[in-house]
């Protein structure tokens, strides 16, 4: 009985192949391939911290010496520590909600560090690690989650757009932006620009993502679609959203797709650099599926024990993105205990700073909602602001009498 994963017929295959249907066993094998990563996973560092040579991708991380790898380790530890602190602050009522990234540090730091200053990133709502890699002050993220701000950073200066909560919508924005880079002649050589767009496995079921794929493909836009397949779209597992591994969808749109171990920061860096390089030279778009795992809840409003087994998390803990780098550094003698202790101390100080800032975060004045809507003034909006302010004044004078 055939149990290998069924693949679609190739152009030129005979009628028998075209007419063939997958057997139930092949369908199940295909689903397992979706949830287990499969042989097609690009990996440079195993979960045990062993370096795997890659003829195709090693050259993209040639410059990553022990010092650079220690830097990536530090990035991930700081980002995780900040994430845990924010999660705790939500539990204490200091944030309205938090969206944990726990487990996705390598996918975000690896791809974020692959970007060049003139590149542009379009995040969804979980990309705190990319924000950090783009030099966004993590304090500026917290205003969104304390509900005092929409996004507090200069997206042009950082090459990092505001968060997008509407699933998949940022893919259209990114496609348009990347088409603009193409129209303005900003692609074609090593100095070319590229765009990266982050979205989840669940987002791939959205029409916006499909449209973004089509537009980017037909215009050869310099766009890296970076799908973090964290196995879950809230309570919906990936295998219920796709009949084939997500990266294979790229083929139907006419651009390359690749599955990378999303818990391997070195592989994420290498594959992202490759994909961005393709885009800067005019060979985009490219789809990267970073195969990873959301180790915490979807948000602090979610309880994953309602829909997934705890042994699944235990299995993924063995593939932890930070531990494998730590194992590699320690085993190779590239870092000693003093280094790991100092990173931990830096992370604790980083988190304490975020905490202190959050507790003392100023409330924005109520009329702030009218600012930054238009680049310059708008008479209708100005009138609304005046009306709102006099309405608020009415409360003050009513209380005074
Ligand atoms: C258009 C739209 N539909 C539904 C939602 C509600 N929603 C928020 S997150 C989410 C799941 C997204 O899953 P995925 O794309 O895998 O991203 P992840 O949260 O796992 O990072 C849904 C359905 C939304 N925000 N926007
Ligand atoms: Mg998901």
From TrEMBL:
Coiled-coil region: none
Keywords, sorted A to Z: Oxidoreductase, Pyruvate, Thiamine pyrophosphate
Stretches for region Disordered: 1-21
Gene Ontology terms describing biological process: branched-chain amino acid catabolic process
Gene3D superfamilies in alphabetical order: 3.40.50.970
Gene source species: Amycolatopsis balhimycina DSM 5908
Transmembrane segments: none
Name of this protein: Pyruvate dehydrogenase (Acetyl-transferring) E1 component subunit alpha
